Amino acid sequence: MSTMEADNSDDMDREVFEEVDPSGRFGRYGELLGSGAFKKVYRGFYQQEGIEVAWNKVKLCKFIDNQKMIDRLFSEVELLRSLKHGSIMSLFDVWRDEEKNSLNFITEVCVSGDLRAYRKMHKKVSLKAVKKWCKHILKGLSYMHILKVS
């Protein structure tokens, strides 16, 4: 096999990412999963673990005149990093992109979106399932109260 053929096969094996994190572990696709006033959430991929993730991107330029809000945002992300519980979304990594003036953080992906959207999508949900959801929510809340998280 020629060198050119080997290079072409390597290109075909690579993921097509819009962006890659500084460590090279996470890649961001162009697919937008959701957005809010300050944050956009993209579909991502954790290459080492082989799982899909949510790539959260906050444009810090929206807070250029509000250092208190930037500090609060960073403290909330650090709080999320410290939480380790099966009923609470996991944070895999966080970094600030100085060049793009953004805060990026990688979390577990919730393929169904939030609970409200999931409930609207599925009209008939058994009482057993609703109880199971409530149990997970209460376990997460209990864990945070034990840690005195506010």
UniProtKB/TrEMBL annotation:
PROSITE patterns named among the record's database cross-references: PROTEIN_KINASE_DOM (PS50011)
EC id: 2.7.11.1
Pfam family of the protein (one): Pkinase
GO MF, one annotated term: protein serine/threonine kinase activity
Domain Protein kinase: 27-150
InterPro entries referenced in this protein's UniProt entry, alphabetically: Kinase-like_dom_sf, Prot_kinase_dom, WNK_Ser-Thr_kinase
Signal peptide (residue range): none
Keywords of the record: ATP-binding, Kinase, Nucleotide-binding, Serine/threonine-protein kinase, Transferase
Entry-linked Gene3D superfamilies: Phosphorylase Kinase, domain 1 (3.30.200.20)
Transmembrane spans: none
Catalytic activity: L-seryl-[protein] + ATP = O-phospho-L-seryl-[protein] + ADP + H(+); L-threonyl-[protein] + ATP = O-phospho-L-threonyl-[protein] + ADP + H(+)
Protein name (database record): non-specific serine/threonine protein kinase
Organism: Lithospermum erythrorhizon
Record lineage: Eukaryota, Viridiplantae, Streptophyta, Embryophyta, Tracheophyta
